[in-house]
Every structure is written in structure tokens, then in C-alpha cells.
Amino acid sequence: MRTNVKHLLGIRELTPEEINSFLDTAESFRDIAEREIKKVPTLRGRTVINLFFEPSTRTRTSFEIAAKRLSADTINI
Predict the structure, then answer these.
(1) Which ranges of 1-56 would DSSP assign to H, the alpha helix?
(2) Which pTM does this prediction carry?
(3) d(CA 55, CA 61)
(4) How confident is the model over 15-46, as pLDDT tens digits?
(5) Rounded to whole angstroms, how far apart are CA atoms 13 and 26?
(6) Which residues does 21 contact at the CB level (< 8 Å), separation at least 6?
């Protein structure tokens, strides 16, 4: 199932089907995490902008690594 969600700020507005779709997609990345090269072309040519209201190096780094593994460029604000 494809979803039209462009910005995920919470799950209150998601249907159960959309939540299951996100979980299924996450499960498919399990095999990728075990590969030597962990990048996939999912977001190639796209930019992910991370905006955090509280300073958290671990959170920022985690989001940046995730975006880069999907082949996205990242900007941290």
C-alpha cells in the first residue's frame, strides 16, 4: 500500500493500514542493515531537512545516517 504522507510528525492522523505499511517497509530494511553496503537508492536526488527544537547529537546523527543510507542529501537546522 502506498501512502500520500509527505511529513510524518505523529501517528494520530494515520490509518491502521498506513501504520502497517510503515512497519512492513521498516521490516524490509532489516536485511539491508546486515549487508556490507547499507545504502539503497530510495531517496536519491532528494534532500532531507532535519529540524530539531532540542539539541540532541544522538538524535540528529541517527536521522542523518538514516537519510544517507537512503541516498538522500541532508541538511540539519
Answers:
(1) 16-33
(2) 0.58
(3) 11
(4) 899 899 889 888 887 888 888 888 888 899 99
(5) 19
(6) 1, 2, 3
Which amino acid belongs to residue 10? G
Total count of residues recorded for the chain? 77
The DSSP bridge partners found for residue 76 are 50
- Strand, coil or helix: what is 35? coil
Q: Chain centroid to CA 65: how far?
A: 9
CATH superfamily of the domain spanning 16-76: Aspartate/ornithine carbamoyltransferase (3.40.50.1370)
CA distance 40 to 20: 21
Residue 50 contacts residue 77 (beta carbons within 8 Å): yes
